[in-house]
Amino acid sequence: MTRFVAVVSGKGGVGKTTCAINIGKSLADLGHKVIILDANLMTPNIALQLGFMDPEGTVNKFLRGQKDLKDITYLHESGISLIPASPSYSEFQKTNPQKLTEIFEHLDNTTDIVLVDAPSGVGYEINQVLKNCDEALVIVNPNYSSVIDALKTIEIAKANNNTITGVVLNMSNRGRHELTEEQVQSYLGYPLLANIRTDRKIRKSLHRQMPLTYLYPRSRSAKQFRLVAEHLSL
């Protein structure tokens, strides 16, 4: 049976997509069959971060019955399989988020793990995603607004019967003028699985539209992403 793991955050801009891509690559390196699904219909970024600027096959067209599952699943040169959402606003307007359940139904039993890059915030779309997932992995930055907003997302995940897998602290700066690891764990009430520091290699990998874990597998950040993947493998 396929595990559906939502990668969530309380607000945008915390690095959720980057984490999803690199955790997905780490899971694949551990021998798991993984698909990364972009379920953020309004502001999708999976395809853009992996060099697919205007994919022909998208989850939007699948939900409208214009494409089959095989037509919207891409294999990146790093070995990641992904299902993109369209970056087009007109495509977003034509897509009914109520139909998201269909993509989950079709993906069930096709792979080991589906990592779902979920929309941020507390609106209708995040509920549609979480009701179709088994687990939620929470991404936060080391500041009060990110953590407090994440608390709301955790409550939504729990209301949808999701197991909270843990927390990834992203874009930390060695403790200077920010919340500590202990504070983040205390506020959220769930274990911290990794601490991803601000890293120029991450910026380089984003520019090259490649996972950091593919370009720099021995880097400190790659090792942190691998810790999350190992936890998900348990």
Describe this structure in words.
The chain is of the alpha/beta class and 234 residues long. It has a single domain (3-233), classed as Rossmann fold (3-Layer(aba) Sandwich), CATH 3.40.50. It is 41% helix and 18% strand. The chain is built from twelve helices and eight strands. The chain has helices at residues 16-29, 46-49, 59-63, 69-72, 89-93, 100-107, 124-130, 144-159, 181-188, 200-207, 212-215, 220-233, and strands at 3-8, 34-38, 74-75, 81-83, 113-117, 135-140, 163-172, 192-197. It has an eight-stranded mixed β-sheet, sandwiched between helices. Helix 1 packs across helix 12 (220-233). The longest helix is centred in the middle third of the chain and has 16 residues, at 144-159. The radius of gyration is 16 Å and the shape is globular. The model has no long low-confidence stretch (mean pLDDT 96).
Please state the CA-atom Rg, rounded to the nearest Å: 16 Å
Main sheet record: 8 strands, mixed
CATH class assignment: Alpha Beta
Number of helices: 12
Helix content: 40-55%
Assign an overall shape. Answer: globular
What are the low-pLDDT stretches, counting only 5+ consecutive residues below 50? none
Tally the beta strands: 8
The figure for the number of domains is 1
CATH topology, anyone? Rossmann fold
Oligomer: single chain
The secondary-structure class comes to alpha/beta
Q: Could you tell me the mean pLDDT? A: 96
CATH architecture label: 3-Layer(aba) Sandwich
List SSEs in N-to-C order.
EHEHHHEEHHEHEHEHEHHH
The percentage of residues in β strands lies in: 15-25%
CATH superfamily: P-loop containing nucleotide triphosphate hydrolases
Side by side, the strands of the main sheet go 3-4-2-5-1-6-7-8
Q: State the end-to-end distance.
A: 15 Å
